[in-house]
Amino acid sequence: MRRLLLLLALLATPVFAVQPDEILDDPALEARARDLSQGLRCLVCRNENIDESNAGLARDLRLLVRERLVAGDSDAEVIAYLVDRYGEYVLLQPTASGENLILWIAGPAMLVIALGTAAVYLRRRKPVAEAAPDPLSEAEKKRLKEILDK
């Protein structure tokens, strides 16, 4: 009965690229592998996790995650191993620390600087006084009077 419920639960989930030969016999390890795979980026497909990607490299990463779990690594050790090997780009949600902190802060900081610069510019800008038109000469006044009297 339990296997039937597990099968129905798997059928109700979206189709993943995980091949049957990749699935671990231990359901607990397989569940951990799936959880880890959801947070790992396919290095070929960019913003797709390795669980959903059909790329060969994604398959290799899925197998590597499962190998590390079978070897007894914790989830944190598996992630640390992959980050050491492929860099933080392999994470779909990179950490906001170290060098990445600059990237996380740079966008909002540049916006604040731009808004501050615009505010200072607008406050210091002096309104331009309109130049008063030259008064009409006597000939122009006479011609204007003629036009208006018609």
Automatic annotation (TrEMBL):
**Signal sequence range:** 1-17
Q: Which UniProt keywords apply?
A: Cytochrome c-type biogenesis, Heme, Iron, Membrane, Metal-binding, Signal, Transmembrane, Transmembrane helix
Limits of the CcmH/CycL/Ccl2/NrfF N-terminal domain: 5-148
> Does the keyword field hold NAD?
no
Q: Where are the transmembrane segments?
A: 101-122
Q: Which InterPro entries match?
A: C-type_cytochrome_biogenesis, CcmH/CycL/Ccl2/NrfF_N, CcmH/CycL/NrfF/Ccl2_sf
Q: Which family does it belong to?
A: Belongs to the CcmH/CycL/Ccl2/NrfF family.
Protein purpose: Possible subunit of a heme lyase.
Q: Which PANTHER family match?
A: CYTOCHROME C-TYPE BIOGENESIS PROTEIN CCMH
What is this protein called in UniProt?
Answer: Cytochrome c-type biogenesis protein
Per the UniProt record, the source organism is Albidovulum salinarum
